[in-house]
């Protein structure tokens, strides 16, 4: 490691030492298991340093804007209620809100939680019964996964815990809202989310990352999701962070027999975004659905890495990621499916399609298959290209001008992911956001008129 | 004796496995500057060539063996390899087949490719490489008439130094990768083809490579240059005798296509894959790259890979010229404990460049196979087009098939498509064949051949026949 890199790492470690000292002064000594993990995380992070592009997993993503940043840790959760109201999804839901990683009770909605549902901030869960958290926390991802996971473990103190009792079906969606503030100095947060769903329980979780437009903070999220037999989870990750925000997240899912996990990873914001999704299909009949949409413009960099491990026979995975890139935006997709030896009767499908709207935009995509069993049906496809000229022509024969036709088709391209979304509030919000991002040359006004006209028909 | 023969038949061992006892003029194992000087001196090379080799050697010393491939093999001891081996009577080489050492001819007989017959019947010029020195070149005069140069690279360095100097290393530079650097330092032979402007090579050119002396790695260097509007089809085929120690093969092939030129390069590779435990097979680390330098030029790679314990091979095309075309057709079959990491790179630089990749992988036994490919479209490659299809077939539950396709697209007018599937042989297809009285083994063979059809039809006739036979031999015992 050269000196610069070392001093970057040291700056984060110094910040950690300060934080630990403050916490001990205010709250006394932490339970020993937490302190030990924190140390393990710090040691691992110190050993690895920030990832560089010579590491295959980070070949296309440069994280120097994070490494060189000087981030503080927020100490309060003050946020303008008017702004919060504007940013909050108009969905009737149970809600936990965090401002720069700090729990905001005033912006949360935890009344009338149905029986069998435990939803609380991580800090409170640790206060109430830290041993109950200590078991599952870190089980799916230790500090080995990445330097960012190690850093998260070193800093973790807040986040969300959701536990569902067997057979519990939560009617209303659960929103985990992360707000980012524009402040004098950039801050970082290391939220930790733990979802434990017992047998046959069902829920919809919406993770919403959004904030003030001028925010330029660093979020480093680690999420562990444990689905027991027959549990069903629909997980939306709607990332609409400010364009200067830096966002790194790793989401680890463990699935028992007959469980179903459906993810919608929707990335519209953020200057530098990296998502890692790792699903472990450990029981027969388990199913993973990874859906993704990303829209990059300006100099946005959006990187999605997904991994599905078929560890048991008769497991299924479907993946569909779509990307639209304009200006100088850079998109990365890496999807990996691994079928373990003796995991027979597997079906795995993977598809990634990308649309480049500018000659300066770039996409690097790599759909991978690693298969060690023979009775499998696995397929993947990746396409990058332009709009289908025949489809453009078909619209033009209906009197729609060239640019409007292109705008409509781009919207339809995104629509192929959004039509899978059951929650209208989210589908509409993303669709409008995509329409708003389309280049002006696509004749936006005409587009809206056409859309309204088509709707009326 | 008879029972021994019987046993051999039953175990269906590698047909081409035998060692011809010819005294070799071999240097002691080890690699340093003096080894390179020895090779260069032995070949009677000019000073610039020696310097070129030494430059490569010094670059190689600073490099480390690549570890990114999905391969597992013990580290190679480069000091345990002998880098030069030549049939003894080097000075007075035979001018015709009659002068060829009868023992050598016998070797070809055993292989089932009697040189004179084959050459005459097929009308193919054969630059036969026995270990490292070309022993005989036929049809040279006929080619000479057309103005085509087809000779060993050593002869080319001696007779056409200015051509070699202009093109050697211009596609695969000395420091390109670990194995290319090693090859550049120690290559002992290979072919040189030069087709001048406007000439269509009157016959298909073919070289049979053989590895013979124990513990010698083979470091072939092939350079093919097609000037404007020239065309050539080149066939490469390999067999090797059976032995216990792993043999290293690190070849480099460079193709240069100028304006409107067309180079078709076909390979059938059938080197010894090792015994049931994977012991003794060939390690094949090859760098093959074609440079479509001129506008509308076209380079086509076709390969059938059935042999070797380890295959590390990515025939690539650099599509520099406007509207140039790159093609890659591959069938790779692995059985036993073979490991293959193979694929291609298509680098789109020029406007309107097109490429297509068809890769068919068949894994059986305990083998592992990976397709690794890169399609890169640069910002200037307006309207570039790529289509990639890679399919894997799995036979048996102990093998593995993997796909690692990279796409790096930096141009909004590019259209890039990748499709891949992995599955086992359809049970309904097998049942259909069997219900018509076709045995399971024949049915598998039919289905596999059908699976590979898209690639086989790209092969020249002689090779297509050989390829189907090879496929069946490789997969023998994989079913049932």
Largest sheet of chain B, if any?
10 strands, mixed
Q: Please name the two chains that share the biggest interface, counting residues whose Cβ lies under 8 Å from a Cβ on the partner chain.
A: A-B, 37 and 35 residues
Q: How big is the Rg of chain A? A: 22 Å
Q: Estimate percent helicity of chain B.
A: 25-40%
Report the structural category of chain A. Answer: alpha/beta
Q: Which structural class do the helices and strands of chain B define?
A: alpha/beta
Separation of termini of chain B? 30 Å
Total DSSP helices of chain A: 10
Give the strand content of chain B.
25-35%
Can you summarize the main beta sheet of chain A? 11 strands, mixed
**Low-confidence runs of chain B (pLDDT<50, min 5 residues)?**
5-14, 88-95, 110-137, 209-216, 239-244
List how many beta strands of chain A DSSP finds: 21
* Radius of gyration of chain B using CA atoms only: 22 Å
The separation of the N and C termini of chain A measures: 64 Å
Low-confidence stretches of chain A: none
User: Residue-averaged pLDDT of chain B, rounded?
Assistant: 80
Shape of chain B: globular
Strand content of the residues of chain A, in percent? Answer: 35-45%
Structural account:
The complex is a heterodimer of chains A (457) and B (480). Chain A has 457 residues and is an alpha/beta fold. Chain A has a domain at 387-457. Chain A has ten helices and 21 strands. In chain A, strand 2 and strand 3 form a beta hairpin. In chain A, helix 2 runs antiparallel to helix 6 (147-155), helix 8 (402-418) packs antiparallel against helix 9 and helix 8 crosses helix 10 (444-456). The radius of gyration of chain A is 22 Å and the shape is globular. Chain B is globular and about 70 Å long. The longest helix of chain B has 16 residues, at 47-62. In chain B, strand 3 and strand 4 (133-137) form a beta hairpin. Chain B has a domain at 19-313. In chain B, helix 3 packs antiparallel against helix 9 (178-186), helix 7 crosses helix 8 (161-167) and helix 10 (427-434) packs across helix 11 (440-451). Chain B contains 13 helices and 24 strands. The model of chain B is unreliable at 5-14, 88-95, 110-137, 209-216 and 239-244 (pLDDT under 50). Chain B starts with a helix and ends in a 5-residue tail after the last helix. The A-B interface holds A 56, 60, 341-342, 344, 354, 356-386 and B 68, 70, 379, 392, 394-424.
């Amino acid at each position: 490691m050269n000196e610069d890199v070392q001093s970057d790492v040291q700056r984060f470690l110094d910040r950690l030492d300060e934080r630990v000292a403050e916490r001990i002064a205010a709250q006394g000594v932490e339970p020993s298991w937490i302190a030990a993990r924190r140390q393990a995380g710090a040691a691992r992070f110190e050993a690895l340093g920030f990832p560089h592009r010579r590491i295959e997993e980070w070949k296309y993503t440069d994280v120097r804007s994070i490494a060189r940043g000087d981030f503080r840790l927020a100490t309060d959760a003050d946020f303008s209620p008017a702004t919060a109201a504007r940013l909050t999804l108009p969905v009737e839901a149970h809600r936990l809100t965090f401002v720069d990683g700090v729990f905001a009770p005033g912006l949360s909605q935890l009344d009338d939680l149905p029986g069998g549902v435990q939803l609380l901030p991580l800090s409170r869960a640790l206060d109430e019964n830290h041993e109950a958290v200590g078991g599952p926390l870190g089980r799916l991802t230790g500090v080995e996964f990445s330097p960012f996971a190690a850093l998260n473990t070193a800093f973790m103190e807040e986040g969300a815990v959701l536990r569902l009792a067997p057979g519990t079906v939560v009617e209303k969606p659960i929103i985990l809202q992360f707000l980012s503030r524009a402040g004098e100095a950039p801050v970082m947060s290391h939220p930790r989310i733990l979802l434990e769903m017992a047998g046959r329980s069902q829920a919809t979780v919406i993770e919403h990352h959004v904030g003030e437009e001028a925010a330029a903070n660093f979020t480093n999220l680690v999420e562990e999701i444990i689905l027991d037999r027959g549990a069903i989870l629909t997980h939306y990750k709607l990332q609409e962070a400010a364009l200067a925000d830096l966002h790194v997240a790793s989401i680890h899912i463990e699935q028992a027999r007959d469980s179903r996990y459906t993810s919608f990873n929707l990335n519209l914001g953020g200057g530098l975004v990296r998502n890692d999704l790792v699903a472990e299909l450990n029981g027969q009949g388990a199913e993973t659905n990874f859906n993704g949409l990303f829209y990059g413009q300006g100099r946005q960099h959006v990187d999605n890495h997904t991994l599905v491990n078929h560890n048991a026979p008769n497991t299924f995975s479907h993946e569909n990621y779509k990307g639209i890139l304009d200006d100088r935006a850079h998109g990365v997709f890496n999807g990996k499916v691994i079928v373990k030896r003796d995991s027979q009767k597997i079906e795995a499908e993977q598809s990634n399609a990308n649309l480049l709207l500018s000659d300066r935009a770039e996409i690097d995509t790599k759909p991978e298959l690693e298969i060690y069993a023979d009775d499998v049906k696995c397929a993947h496809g990746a396409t990058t290209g332009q709009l289908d000229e025949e489809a453009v022509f078909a619209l033009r024969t209906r009197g729609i001008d060239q640019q409007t036709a292109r705008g409509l088709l781009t919207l339809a391209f995104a629509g192929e992911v959004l039509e899978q979304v059951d929650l209208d509030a989210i589908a509409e919000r993303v669709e409008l956001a995509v329409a708003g991002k389309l280049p002006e040359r696509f004749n936006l006004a005409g587009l809206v008129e056409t859309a309204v006209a088509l709707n009326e028909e | 004796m008879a029972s021994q023969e019987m046993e051999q038949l039953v175990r269906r061992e590698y047909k081409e496995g035998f060692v011809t006892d010819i005294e070799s003029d071999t240097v002691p194992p080890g690699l340093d500057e003096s080894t390179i000087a020895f090779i260069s001196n032995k070949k009677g090379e000019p000073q610039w060539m020696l310097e070129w080799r030494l430059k490569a050697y010094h670059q190689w010393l600073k490099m480390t063996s690549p570890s990114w491939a999905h391969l597992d093999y013990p580290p190679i001891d480069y000091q345990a390899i002998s880098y030069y081996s030549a049939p003894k009577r080097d000075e007075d080489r035979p001018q015709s087949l009659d002068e060829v050492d009868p023992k050598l001819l016998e070797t070809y007989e055993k292989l089932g490719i009697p040189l004179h017959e084959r050459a005459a019947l097929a009308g193919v010029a054969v630059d036969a490489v026995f270990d490292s020195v070309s022993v005989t070149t036929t049809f040279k005069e006929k080619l000479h008439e057309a103005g085509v140069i087809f000779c060993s690279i050593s002869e080319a360095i001696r007779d056409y130094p200015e051509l070699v100097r202009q093109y050697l290393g211009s596609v695969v530079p000395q420091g390109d990768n670990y194995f290319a650097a090693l090859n550049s330092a120690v290559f002992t032979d290979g072919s040189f083809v030069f087709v001048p402007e406007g000439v269509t090579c009157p016959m298909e050119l073919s070289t049979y490579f053989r590895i013979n002396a124990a513990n010698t790695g083979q470091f072939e260097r092939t350079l093919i240059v097609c000037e404007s509007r020239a065309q050539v089809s080149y066939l490469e085929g390999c067999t090797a005798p059976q032995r216990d120690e792993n043999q290293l093969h690190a070849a480099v092939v460079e193709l240069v296509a100028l304006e409107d030129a067309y180079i078709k390069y076909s390979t059938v590779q059938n080197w010894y894959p090792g015994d049931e435990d994977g012991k003794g097979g060939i390690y094949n680390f090859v760098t093959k790259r074609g440079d479509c330098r001129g506008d509308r030029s076209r380079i086509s790679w076709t390969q059938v890979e059935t042999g070797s314990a380890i295959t590390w091979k990515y025939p690539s095309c650099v599509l520099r010229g406007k509207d140039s075309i790159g093609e890659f057709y591959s069938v790779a079959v692995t059985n036993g404990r073979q490991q293959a990491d193979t694929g291609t790179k298509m680098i789109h630089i020029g406007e309107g460049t097109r490429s297509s990749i068809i890769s068919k992988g068949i894994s059986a036994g305990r083998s592992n196979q990976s397709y690794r490919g890169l399609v890169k479209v640069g910002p200037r490659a307006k309207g570039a087009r790529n289509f990639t299809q890679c399919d894997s077939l799995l036979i048996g539950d102990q093998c593995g098939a993997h796909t690692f396709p990279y796409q790096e697209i930096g141009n909004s007018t590019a259209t890039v498509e990748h499709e891949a599937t992995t599955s086992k042989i359809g049970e309904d297809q097998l049942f259909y064949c069997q219900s018509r009285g076709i045995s399971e083994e024949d049915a598998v063979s039919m289905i596999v051949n059908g699976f590979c059809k898209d690639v086989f039809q790209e092969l020249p006739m002689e090779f297509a026949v050989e390829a189907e036979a090879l496929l069946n031999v490789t997969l023998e015992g994989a079913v049932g």
